[in-house]
């Protein structure tokens, strides 16, 4: 997914009505732009680190490469990838002191060990071979089922804990594209899904590219009752996560446009939130009301490049959650609340893992990051995760690595069936 930065703007746009005609278009409203600096210290530091790492990768001299990677680690010390690159460069040149320092830092970042482990890791079921490019997983508490999204075909599934499945057949809906994320409304009346074109879906359907959109589906009948096209219609969208807020608004994170989209279903309008810290927004959770403090409209967003962000939707204020010492929340994808604690998939490391993130009461500072589960044989390209209140569920592998960027299958690599794993109970080791 592309990751970009931009200045903060909240843009109110008319909701585009799809071919179903189930919603009336809102009147076009003028854009509202909140005053903000054009940059941010964390953004500048991350950019400086990336520039140094790129220069190091092009450098032919060993000592020069070490110096450039030292510059990168100084600019962005919570990025394990830069310390790993420094360790390799230092070992290649015989710089033992720099290599040892990098290794100590990596160990301190807790990249390589788990202090808390699940009491039970169960492979619950593998998806049929005919289903591939699975992406999203969410728990529908009202109906007691999992919601799974399938991108290549463009549909979503309901699945019980025991593996009984029901295809919602969204691929038969006119204008539907690859389905990225699905969530159930708290009242159980509707399902919400995000869709956007992606190469494997386009190759499979050989059709014109539909607009990226948010869809509302009746839970009982399975019929689409609403469609809203996302703004920036000419952009390459990647609406990887979707969140239904307590008040009924629908929030979509889009790594392709580096933006958050807030749909107001009753008013028929979409707000676009941009900020320098939003470079590749991924997973999202709504902060529980008892932890929001004086703020009442707060979400946490995992930005792949810049870490955890605390966003007040009422004011469009975007803040970076402060890091804990020697802990990294970069490379996070899916987020969920589990038994009162924030949990996440961290797939931006060399070896992906599931982590628990301890926050202070109003979620302004990370207190600790603890590895819950890592498994180099089973956990391959995980993305999102969900909690049913008792256990965590996730796709151990989502098949992203089995497809090339153009949507073709990677040569000489067998397609591995997507596997749904349940993690129950966590004990300290």
Structure characterization notes:
By secondary structure, the protein is an alpha+beta fold. Helix content is 15%, strand content 36%. It has helices spanning 41-58, 62-75, 80-93, 96-108, 199-205; strands at residues 9-14, 16-17, 116-126, 134-140, 145-150, 155-159, 165-167, 178-184, 190-196, 213-218, 224-229, 241-244, 250-254, 259-264, 269-274, 281-286, 298-303, 307-312, 317-320, 332-338, 341-346, 353-359, 366-373, 385-387, 391-395, 419-428. α2 runs antiparallel to α3. The two termini are 36 Å apart. Mean pLDDT is 84; it is low at 1-35.
Summarize this structure as a short list of keywords or feature phrases:
26 strands; disordered N terminus; 36% strand; 429 residues; globular; 5-stranded antiparallel sheet
Q: Care to give the gist of this entry?
A:
With 429 residues, this protein is α+β, with helices and mostly antiparallel strands.
What's the Cα radius of gyration? 21 Å
The description of the largest β-sheet is: 5 strands, antiparallel
- The structure class reads alpha+beta
Helix content: 10-25%
**Annotation, overall tally of beta strands:** 26
Strand content: 35-45%
Low-pLDDT sequence parts = 1-35
> How are the strands ordered across the major sheet?
1-15-14-13-12
Give the number of helices.
5
Name the shape in a single word.
globular
Mean pLDDT: 84
User: How far apart are the termini?
Assistant: 36 Å
SSE topology:
Elements: E1 9-14, E2 16-17, H1 41-58, H2 62-75, H3 80-93, H4 96-108, E3 116-126, E4 134-140, E5 145-150, E6 155-159, E7 165-167, E8 178-184, E9 190-196, H5 199-205, E10 213-218, E11 224-229, E12 241-244, E13 250-254, E14 259-264, E15 269-274, E16 281-286, E17 298-303, E18 307-312, E19 317-320, E20 332-338, E21 341-346, E22 353-359, E23 366-373, E24 385-387, E25 391-395, E26 419-428
Helix pairs in contact: 1-2, 2-3, 3-4
């Amino acid at each position: 997914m592309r990751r970009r930065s931009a200045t903060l703007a909240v843009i109110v746009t008319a909701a585009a009505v799809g071919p179903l005609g189930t919603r009336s278009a809102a009147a076009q409203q003028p854009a509202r732009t909140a005053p903000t600096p054009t940059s941010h210290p964390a953004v500048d530091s991350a950019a400086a680190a990336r520039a140094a790492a790129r220069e190091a990768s092009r450098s032919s001299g060993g000592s020069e490469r070490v110096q450039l990677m030292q510059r990168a680690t100084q600019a962005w010390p919570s990025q394990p990838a830069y310390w790993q690159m420094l360790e390799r460069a230092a070992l290649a040149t015989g710089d033992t002191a720099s290599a040892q320092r990098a290794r100590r830092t990596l160990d301190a970042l807790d990249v390589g060990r788990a202090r808390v482990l699940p009491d039970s890791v169960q492979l619950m079921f593998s998806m049929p071979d005919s289903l591939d490019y699975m992406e999203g997983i969410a728990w529908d508490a009202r109906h007691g089922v999992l919601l799974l999204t399938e991108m290549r075909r463009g549909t979503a599934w309901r699945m019980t804990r025991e593996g009984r499945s029901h295809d919602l057949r969204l691929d038969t809906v006119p204008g539907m594209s690859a389905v990225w994320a699905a969530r159930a409304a708290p009242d159980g009346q509707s399902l919400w899904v995000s869709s956007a074109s992606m190469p494997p879906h386009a190759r499979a359907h050989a059709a014109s590219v539909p607009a990226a959109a948010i869809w509302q589906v009746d839970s009982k009948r399975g019929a689409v009752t609403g469609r809203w096209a996302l703004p920036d219609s000419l952009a390459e969208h990647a609406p990887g996560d979707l969140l239904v807020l307590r008040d009924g608004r629908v929030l979509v994170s889009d790594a392709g446009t580096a933006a958050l989209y807030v749909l107001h279903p009753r008013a028929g309008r979409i707000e676009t939130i941009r900020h320098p810290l939003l470079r590749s927004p991924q997973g999202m959770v709504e902060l529980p009301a008892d932890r929001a403090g004086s703020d009442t409209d707060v979400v946490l967003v995992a930005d792949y490049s810049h870490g955890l962000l605390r966003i007040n939707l009422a004011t469009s204020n975007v803040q970076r959650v402060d890091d804990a010492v020697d802990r990294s929340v970069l490379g996070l994808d899916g987020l969920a609340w589990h038994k009162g604690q924030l949990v996440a998939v961290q797939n931006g490391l060399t070896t992906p893992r599931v982590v628990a993130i301890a926050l202070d009461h109003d979620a302004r500072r990370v207190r600790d990051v603890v590895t819950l589960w890592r498994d180099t044989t089973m956990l391959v390209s995980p993305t999102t995760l969900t909690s049913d209140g008792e256990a965590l569920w996730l796709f151990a592998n989502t098949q992203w690595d089995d497809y090339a960027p153009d949507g073709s299958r990677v040569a000489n690599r067998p397609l591995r069936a997507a596997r749904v794993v349940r993690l129950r109970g966590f004990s300290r080791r």
